[in-house]
Write a structure and sequence with these properties.
mainly alpha, 3 domains, elongated
Length: about 475
């Protein structure tokens, strides 16, 4: 008897149609026993419970985009699980971020069996890991359009990417084809949210020229305040615009020109801050907002000086030097920043971290590396470095430092009076491939509770750099 036949017989009543056990379900059951109907019903229900569902009549032939990247080396899998899964192993600290960047840089992917065990890490860094939306819960709509996160972007699919990738694509394109990049942004801006519009406008800062002025002026009335500020900041970097002239006039009203010296007179410049700017944090914000929107060359011309002469005149005013450094960053004048950082303000790089490099339009990794080479001296304060500064530097760089600066930061971290696991981990996360082996050797004799996580990260990145080993 089939399960359906048993249920039908019981529904009609066994008084008129007695239930006769037969077949597989009725084998060994006495027809005359008092509990036979109940036993047959139970067997029928169990049989239906484990029965396979009916096959669909129509199948969806759409397939996921094939991921041709190789799976990471087998020896690295347990090391990654130790680093970013389980209690006490955060999936979103500098070590996890550096791991995701390392996987992306090497063009390898996680083993599919490890993805569920690394759910928190995957969700946080899905964009770099290139995990499919169903696994990593990445931005909705990307897979449906046919673009996969591990594929390269071009003019036909860049608008389908995530916000950070869109901005990086435009910034890179501005180096080779500024007009083409501007046209792509102009067509896409009306379709984007304020956050993405802000990123794309900041990306236009790469290769900025007077040809961008009409587009920027048309965006000056954007409904989002953050976007309007970004547009004003870019316009202020273009000589001859109203925004540039107004910003320079505001600064000139606060900078006093004088002279000093008896036998050899030299010009001096000093900055008068607004009376309502009292704290150190508010001071940096004011300087970045007002100086970061103009180029230092335009500011120097207003004093009829060269940028080098302006630096010499501002030698004794630390606030003005920080402001000049912000204006130099706006026009990518790295020698001026280097002169201030190496000759006058060794902690200048920490001032940039408060507002973030993005506020100066430093979108691409190349520009951030140029900034780091100029702003971070190779000789740092070896006792005062703390994890807050290094973690903020890692977040701002979104990638490794140049090797010389990374070595300086790591050396300062190992000799800091604030030495700890977080500081060392962030310092290792900033190290490029060329310094990983020496970092691992330096960390080896240190206590595991201080250096264990940092050394594990270094060893993973070394293994990823070496690639898969023959079995």
């Amino acid at each position: 008897m089939t399960p359906a036949a048993i249920i039908e017989a019981l529904m009609q009543g066994t008084g008129r149609r007695p239930l006769h056990p037969a077949g597989v379900l009725g084998e060994g059951i006495d027809p005359g026993a008092e509990g036979t109907p109940a036993r047959m019903l139970a067997l029928a229900v169990l049989a239906q419970l484990y029965d396979l569902p009916a096959p669909p009549t129509v199948f969806d032939d759409a397939a996921a985009a094939p991921d041709g990247r190789p799976i990471l080396p087998a020896a690295v899998r347990p090391m990654i699980l130790s680093l970013v899964s389980g209690k006490g192993n955060p999936p979103d600290d500098p070590a996890a971020f550096a791991l995701a960047q390392g996987l992306e840089r090497r063009g390898v992917r996680l083993h599919p069996f490890d993805v569920p065990r690394l759910a928190g890490f995957v969700r946080k860094h899905a964009e770099m890991l290139g995990v499919a939306p169903a696994e990593g819960e990445v931005e909705a709509g990307a897979a449906a359009t046919g673009w996969a996160m591990w594929e390269s972007l071009d003019e036909t699919n860049w608008m389908l990417a995530t916000p950070a990738r869109k901005a990086n694509f435009i910034a890179d394109l501005r180096v080779t084809d500024p007009a083409g990049a501007r046209a792509l942004v102009e067509a896409q801006l009306p379709l984007e949210k304020a956050e993405v519009r802000l990123r794309l406008i900041d990306a236009l800062g790469a290769g900025l020229s007077s040809e961008d002025r009409p587009l920027l002026e048309s965006l000056a009335a954007d409904r989002a305040p953050t976007v309007k500020r970004a547009v004003t900041r870019l316009l202020a970097r273009l000589p001859g615009t109203g925004a540039a002239e107004a910003q320079i006039a505001e600064l000139l009203s606060r900078i006093t020109q004088g002279s000093t010296g008896l036998l050899r007179r030299r010009v001096t410049l000093s900055l008068q801050m607004p009376a309502n700017v009292k704290s150190a944090t508010a001071e940096i914000d004011w300087l970045a907002t007002n100086f970061g929107g103009i180029g230092c060359s335009a500011l120097a011309r207003a004093f009829d000086m060269s940028p080098e002469a302006m630096l010499e005149a501002a030698h004794d005013d630390g606030r003005l030097l920080r402001g000049i450094a912000f204006s130099a960053c706006a026009e990518r004048n790295w020698p001026v920043i280097s002169a201030i950082a190496n000759g006058r303000l060794a902690d200048l790089w920490t001032c940039f971290l408060q507002t973030g490099l993005g506020s100066f339009g430093l979108v691409t990794q190349r520009e951030r590396s140029d900034w780091a080479s100029a702003a971070i001296p190779t000789r740092l304060n070896l006792s005062g470095l703390d994890r807050y500064h290094v973690s903020a530097l890692h977040a701002a760089m979104e990638g490794p430092l140049p090797l010389a600066q990374a070595r300086a930061v790591f050396r300062a971290a190992t000799q800091s009076r604030h030495i700890g696991a977080d500081l060392l981990t962030a310092a290792v996360a900033l190290m490029p491939d060329g310094g990983l082996e020496e970092v691992s050797q330096t960390l080896a004799p240190l206590p595991p509770d201080i250096a264990g996580r940092a050394r594990l990260l270094a060893d993973i990145l070394i293994r990823l750099k070496e690639g898969p080993r023959p079995s």
